[in-house]
Amino acid sequence: MAVVTVEFAIVLPVLIALVVGIVESCNLIYVKQSLTVSAYEGARAAIVKGMTQTDIEARSNQLLADRKIKNTAILISPNPPSAAAYGSYITVRVQATYGTNAIIPGWFFGGVTLQSSVKMMKEY
């Protein structure tokens, strides 16, 4: 019985660290995918005639708010997108620090800055 207790005491911290690492890694992938979807929605909004920078940022921010992603920055190029010529590309980049979106802040990926960008051609 004592051997089992000693083995359990040795293995338990490793097992807990492994499970927490897996959960944090899955959350990191979720945040990264959320940034990608937000950038895509912003780029789709940017290629619609009459959309302003405020409209584009609102579209991207709505998705980020729905997914509870905090501490983000949205960069649109060219700025303003309405100044881009027909056939040129509009890029929407969304960034977030993972530390503020982590399940357990400051552990595995605390200082990582995630970003995603989508480029679409202006069609009007």
Describe the fold and architecture.
The chain contains 2 helices and 3 strands, in the order ααβββ. With 124 residues, the chain is an alpha+beta fold. It has a 3-stranded antiparallel beta sheet with strand order 1-2-3. The longest helix has 45 residues, at 2-46.
Summarize the structure.
This protein is an alpha+beta fold.
User: What can be said about the biggest beta sheet?
Assistant: 3 strands, antiparallel
User: What class would the helix/strand composition place it in?
Assistant: alpha+beta
Count of separate DSSP helical elements? 2
Structural Rg: 21 Å
Tell me the series of helices and strands, N- to C-terminal.
HHEEE
Spatial strand arrangement across the major sheet: 1-2-3
Summed over residues and divided by their number, the pLDDT gives a mean of 91
* Helix share, percent: 40-55%
Shape: rod-shaped
Give the total of beta strands.
3
> Beta-sheet strand percentage?
15-25%
Low-confidence stretches: none
Q: Kindly, what is the distance between the CA atoms of the first and last residues, rounded to a whole number of angstroms?
A: 76 Å
Layout of SSEs?
Layout lengths: L1 H45 L6 H14 L5 E6 L11 E9 L15 E9 L3
Antiparallel strand pairs: 1-2, 2-3
Helix pairs in contact: 1-2
Feature tags:
single chain; 124 residues; alpha+beta; 3-stranded antiparallel sheet; 2 helices; 3 strands
